[in-house]
DNA sequence: CTGAAAGCGCTTACAG
DNA sequence: CTGAAAGCGCTTACAG
């Protein structure tokens, strides 16, 4: 047992007293600022070590309040009829915004239309003009995203990716699901539900399937499972670039006619509601339906038993964590930030209540 | 647009200036402390409203640092060979502890042996003697828990329940799963996996099944699903109060002999590993096995395909949130705290990686 | 290279 | 009932 001194002093003051220097010098050492004699620096550092000193983040942040605000730029798709999904990440971002506002952080939104690549490019330019202190993006268009990421790298602005990843570029971290495993998991669910003699169908519904990294990765994972544990003979493929209901319903009807043994359908994104609508209209809710995302429309079908499984990747949390990791990095200069792979939740009519937000 | 004045002042200072009172008075009003003339109080409150003033929690907490520490008592089962599970909530509690320590909060642990009711009572007494500022408990033994809860109520100490609930007592909130739905969800999974002509088995393994609220609730939910969508004829029951492997294996072997059609087994707690061990020993990993908890032992079986589904209820998060909700309540005097029903995660060999802690 | 002073926004004795 | 002063632990000009 070491005799603990009556430490009326603590923190920087105690360090200053022991090292026989002023608070200013202690501060310079702690924050690695220039202008301290090596000898002094060493002495102070030794005491810091000895005391196992941990700065009080409250006090630090309070003292910094007077200094300028930190500006975080957030780039993500706007919310449209077609992309209700993006409401969720935005909610998470706003939640984080509210929490850290009082720490002198300010979040600036940049929205783009997912179908307009030039609009994305334009927003990237605006961000670069405004040179924020941190950047959070959904890298929907790879080329322009890389432009921004390179800019950030040069300017030493931390850049966080969300929802889907572009590896091998200098980014602070990626926050989102491991999409391959998401598909693989779907394969597994299909396997559990497949009755004897049945077939499964995989359905991609999107304007640009070939350039949609997310869909391709999920499909890869799904097929990997089939090759491993089942057989591709048991699988029917469908790609729909016409995303209208009539078109989808038409093709599905034809395919079901052709492959009467289809017992399970896996839709690789949130458009699963189109398939649900169709299944319901033909009175075939016995077919197991698996799809994506905790959207009101999808939940309706889930509750009614038309959709059986929804895979969900915590969109709010992605937004929240995206902002918070920038905040942590910039304010508390936390060390290396790790990628955060979001869990892939399996949601059914029996547990969906507990996944609200 | 209102002309915004050059507010060099803000916060309490600005309020004091406008109301023509001192900081002390403003503080009294903000914190509802006595000793302010009604007229003054009203004037100050009006300005607070007008300014839409929000106190800076950083500054508040920093100022309070000098005051005494807040002491939180945490009561939960200790970690033994038999109850590795409780490591997880403890981790969450420790994580919260680390985060809020610098805000002058101190967590005190009280452990008990789940098999010794008198030990639980003893710890309850110790807590009451120490009169902490907040209490977080796992109410394993109902009677003693109620004693503690009543004590808290009288002393106005906030009390949070974790893991299982005792409703209708004055508690700040409950943090844990809705156990009925957990069983119901299991019924649903069984339904999806059940092939034609197969039967399912439900297995309870615990010393005291009849007094184990958690197990009973899950079983209720499970049976409810069967009554609703399947038939009880398709179900075989097994209660094991002898929790040793030999006994379990013996009974299971006999039952499987009797009911050869059993294709799925649902174990209502983390002892699913005993059944997994048996299934593996008799080479029947084709039987679908569903159980509970993200424990190393269970994960091993999950990865090897012996266990198919693990239902998990975020034990770390329960501990973390339990502490944090007390903290929020005591430090920021957040208003009514709501119960937080933890999601029931469905974990398989394809998504378990993302549920680590 | 170093120190003394002022300040971040709030709270608390203490004195009247 | 009210105010002036000191302090929470850290940071930042400014002066030397």
Gist of the model:
The structure is a homodimer of 357-residue chains. Chain A is an alpha/beta fold.
What is the percent of helical residues of chain A?
Answer: 40-55%
Number-wise, the strands of chain A total 12
Radius of gyration of chain A, in Å, reads: 26 Å
- Strand order, biggest sheet of chain A? 2-1-3-4-5-11
Query: In the CATH scheme, what's the topology name of the largest domain in chain A?
Result: Rossmann fold
Q: Beta fraction of the residues of chain A? A: 15-25%
Low confidence ranges of chain A: 1-7
For the report, how would you describe the main beta sheet of chain A? Answer: 6 strands, parallel
Q: Any idea what the CATH architecture of the largest domain in chain A is?
A: 3-Layer(aba) Sandwich
- How far apart are the termini of chain A? 49 Å
Number of domains of chain A: 3
Oligomer: homodimer
Domain HTH lacI-type (chains A, B): 10-64
Pfam family, one (chains A, B): Peripla_BP_4
Protein name (chains A, B): LacI family DNA-binding transcriptional regulator
InterPro entries (chains A, B): HTH_LacI, Lambda_DNA-bd_dom_sf, Peripla_BP_I, SBP_2_dom
Would you mind describing this structure in some detail?
Two copies of one chain form a homodimer. The first copy, chain A, has 357 residues and is an alpha/beta fold. Chain A is built from 13 helices and twelve strands. Chain A has helices at 11-19, 23-30, 38-51, 57-64, 87-101, 117-130, 142-155, 179-193, 213-229, 245-258, 272-281, 296-303, 315-331, and strands at 70-77, 105-112, 134-137, 159-162, 173-176, 199-205, 235-240, 262-267, 288-292, 309-312, 340-341, 345-347. Chain A has a six-stranded parallel sheet with strand order 2-1-3-4-5-11, with helices on both faces. A six-stranded mixed sheet of chain A has the order 7-6-8-9-10-12, with helices on both faces. In chain A, helix 1 (11-19) crosses helix 3 and helix 5 (87-101) runs parallel beside helix 13. The longest helix of chain A has 17 residues, at 213-229. Chain A is elongated. The model of chain A is unreliable at 1-7 (pLDDT under 50). The A-B interface holds A 54, 56-59, 61-62, 65, 102-103, 177-178, 181, 184-185, 187-189, 192-193, 195-196, 225, 288, 308, 341-346, 348-351, 353-355 and B 54, 56-59, 61-62, 65, 102-103, 177-178, 181, 184-185, 187-189, 192-193, 195-196, 225, 288, 308, 341-346, 348-351, 353-355. Chain B binds a DNA duplex (16 and 16 nucleotides) through helix 1, helix 2 and helix 4.
